[in-house]
Every structure is written in structure tokens, then in C-alpha cells.
Amino acid sequence: MNKIGMRIPPQIGANGIEGVAKFASEIGLNVVDLPYLNQEIKSTLEKEGLEIGTVDGIGAVGQTKLLSPHQESRNEAINALKKQISEVSVLGGKVIFICLVPENSMTRREAFEIWKIAFPSIVEHAEQNNVFLALEGWPGPAPYYPTLGCTPEMLRAMFNVIPSKHFGLNYDPSHLVRLGIDYLRVLNEFGHRVTYCHGKDTEILHDDLYEFGNIPATFGANYDFSEGSWRYTIPGQGEVDWGKVALRLEKINYNGPISIELEDHRYWGTLEKEKLGIVKAKEHLELYFKQ
């Protein structure tokens, strides 16, 4: 049984956590992912019958000093994340969301060598606090796509270095589709390391694929949340077969949330569009994930 939740889109989030929680509860969501967690936020969610999803890792989302070549900067970031892990644990949070984009133009290989130094102590601290790290596979900005963990090659290397299940995968098939990676095979190989799951999809734009190939468009993409030949969508409007995803998640005994991440040109820009996008995404996911 998988509960359905959401990351907070900007217009919905502009209403504050009380407005977010009220909307989520009204449409029947169970879980909310959070940019940060404190007692007030926890109490607000509990009042509406909602659970804490992921909490964004401090300094661990986007360009991060956790992968800095400078030891002093790296140690400051490590200590800040460890402190947050302890605080989140006390408040009942279980999953920290991370997306490791190195600073500047560092290659993934260079960043991986730094990661091997930085992360073992972080994961050990997470184990001690019964908190799980969920690694997001957004490949990062063009032209380098430097994010650690966006390909099976890199995931395999990282999981070999840190075998602990407290360092796991935030499974988001939308990124895999745009990269041409078999999103179901990823579950077959790395299913035992899935810590969390995003409900997001990708449409391959075949006419635009002819125009731009599989590299970013020279003069700009035709849609938001796109580089040219693909665009992110809500579940059900892209290439992902959510029935097959649900079957494989059930097979690996994943019983965590499916959290809607709204990044879709058609449901963006106004509060009404965001709300409609969340509702439509929820309706599609409910076809396959029992509540």
C-alpha cells in the first residue's frame, strides 16, 4: 500500500504551510515533502492528518559544498547536514532528500572522489539517528550534467562504496526517460536501495527530437521544464507505464509514498493551474497505487 503525497509547488507554497496542508488534506493526499522541518510545521501537518515526507537536506540540494575540493568548506557543510539529520530525527522525520550537484564545472568523476571522502561519516550519522538519505537523479544543468547518481554506472559505484540502506535512491523515472535509461530495469537492479519515489513523468517530443537531437536546443526549448526534445509532465501524460512501476515497487516491498513533483508546462504559473496539476496527477497515480 503506497500513500500519495507532493512536493510543494511555488504558488501553492506561497499560501504558507497552513494553506499547503489544508489543500493537501482536502484533495486526499497523505504526505507532504518539506523544504525544512520544525515543530510548528509538524504540528500543522498532524492537525490535517498528514505525514512528513522528505525534508530537503541543508546544503545538499543543488550546487553543494559537500563536494567542495576545499576541506574547510566541505567540513562546514558536512556538520550542518549532520546537525539537521539529528533535528529531523527528533521531530519524527525519516527521509532527507539530497541532489548532489558539484560546484563550478567539476566532472562527475572528480566529484565522486570527493564524495567518497565526505559521505561515509554522514551516512554513519544517519544510521545512528535512523534517518535515510534519498539521492535524486536529476542530471543537473547543461552542458556537463554533473549530478552524482543520475546514471546506473554512477549509482552502482556509489552503492558499492556505501552499502548501507541509509544511503538510498529517490526513484524518479522522469529523469531516466529523458536520459534514455530503462526506468524499469533501474528498479530491477537498484530496487533494494529505493528509499523514496517521485511521481513525475517525461514526454518525448518526437518532432522536436528531429529538430534538436538529444542535445539542448540552440535557441531555446518550446516548453518550460524542457531542453528541447523532451519535457517533464505529470504522471499519465508521458512515457512512463505507472502500472509496471507499481508492480515492481510492490515486488521489492516498497511501501513508502509516491510523491507528486509538479514540473509541467501545462500546469504551471498560477495557483489554479498548480492545483489542477496536482489533482490530475493524484487521480492517475491512484489507478495503480492502492491507498
Write the layout of secondary structure elements.
Elements: E1 4-6, H1 10-13, H2 16-26, E2 31-34, H3 39-47, E3 51-63, H4 71-90, E4 95-101, H5 108-128, E5 132-136, H6 152-161, E6 167-171, H7 173-179, H8 183-190, E7 194-199, E8 201-204, H9 206-212, E9 230-233, H10 242-251, E10 258-260, H11 271-285
Give a written overview of the molecule.
It is a single chain. The protein is of the alpha/beta class and 291 residues long. Helices cover 42% and strands 19% of the residues. It has 11 helices and 10 strands. It has helices spanning 10-13, 16-26, 39-47, 71-90, 108-128, 152-161, 173-179, 183-190, 206-212, 242-251, 271-285; strands spanning 4-6, 31-34, 51-63, 95-101, 132-136, 167-171, 194-199, 201-204, 230-233, 258-260. It has an 8-stranded parallel beta barrel, surrounded by 4 helices. A two-stranded antiparallel sheet has the order 8-9. Strand 4 (95-101), helix 5 and strand 5 form a beta-alpha-beta unit. The model has no long low-confidence stretch (mean pLDDT 96).
Provide keyphrases for this structure.
291 residues, alpha/beta, 8-stranded parallel beta barrel, two-stranded antiparallel ribbon, 11 helices, 42% helix, 19% strand
